[in-house]
Each structure stands twice: as structure tokens, then as C-alpha cells.
Amino acid sequence: MSPAFVPLVFERLSVEESRARVAAFRELLRRRRSVRDFAPDPVPLDVVDAAIEAAGSAPSGANRQPWRFVVVRDPETKRRIREAAETEEREFYERRAPPDWLADLAPLGTDWRKPFLETAPVLIVLFALDWTAEPGPDGRERRHKNYYVQESVGIALGLLLAALHAAGLATLTHTPSPMGFLGSLLGRPRNERAYVLLPVGYPAPDATVPDIQKKALEEIRTIVE
Prior knowledge:
By secondary structure, the chain is an alpha+beta fold.
């Protein structure tokens, strides 16, 4: 059976408008910083949902959309997530991390303590789905493989970060290793693999960030003509 196709809805912009829009978007994202000092002020759920819907528009292998966004606002659940994450992070910082990795982290001032996991009003846990359970021809459940899962979920995460930043919210991409405890704590099915833990909220009034610089265009772009 051939797939159905519909007309593409696309607005072709003038060169001037393209330049103006991408410049404004570039400047918006240049102001984004990873934040570890959050205010406890609540965040509107509809704003978070709109950002997740934007992330869900990401392209994915065979349009399988192999992601699940779990929004955590319950204080007790956040406390349990913090405790489990700090257990893994302490093991990482004190035993598992190689010296070069710790040296690279040192200027950022991070350690195994993660109070932001409780302070931030919202945690979004993004799960990757390597396969999806679907009924087979005989009515029994079968595993339907998803494709390019890492790439697809990574694109969705990028859109989510941009959408939340555009909404005036601060974020931090936190990846405690390993992250298996997130699936257990949140009661997720066995086909969902924790990809990233994202605190979301407003920066604390006295929040600070490391004084770092991003690479210039000439360092990250090569032209082949």
C-alpha cells in the first residue's frame, strides 16, 4: 500500500528576511546557558507542554518518533531522583572518572552534589525507545525496532532546549551515569532507556555560570566548493 502524500506547506522567505530571522535566533541561543542555581518558583505546565510538542516535531528514523518525555513535579519523586543521582555521581567523581575527565570538569566547578534536582520546579526525563511493543499479525505482542534512535532523540533534545529557552526558562542537561535508576523510579516500561535528565525553571536571583566562550565560526565550519 502506497503512503498518502499531502502538499507541503512552506513559506519561502526573502534573503533579507532569512538573514534577519536567523540572526535573531542565533542571538537568542547565544544567551542560553546551562544553569545549576534554580529558583523554586513554579513553571506553567502549558509552557512546558508546548516546548515538548515542539520537540516532538523533530525528524526521526522512519518517523518512528522513538522518544518519551516524563515531566516530574512531585517533590518526593524529585528527592528520590536526587538521592539516586548523587549516589551514581559520587561514585563517578571519586572512583570511575579518569583524571583527564576530572581535569576538564574542574573549571566548571561541578561535583557529585546535585541540589538543583530538588530545587528546580520541573524535571523532564527524556527516554529513548530502542523498540516499541506492537501487536503482530497473530495478535501477540512483538518488538518493532526503531531506527537511528540516538540521532533522532538527540535532535528532539536540541529542539526542546531551544523551545524552553525561547520561553524564558533555564535548563541543564544532566546525565548521571548510569541512569537506569530513572526508569525504575518512574515506573517506565523496559523498552524505555533514560537519555537525559533536564531540570527546568527560572534561575535563582544570585545564579552564576562559568565564564566560558564558544568556538568561533571559523573553528567549527568548513566550506567545500
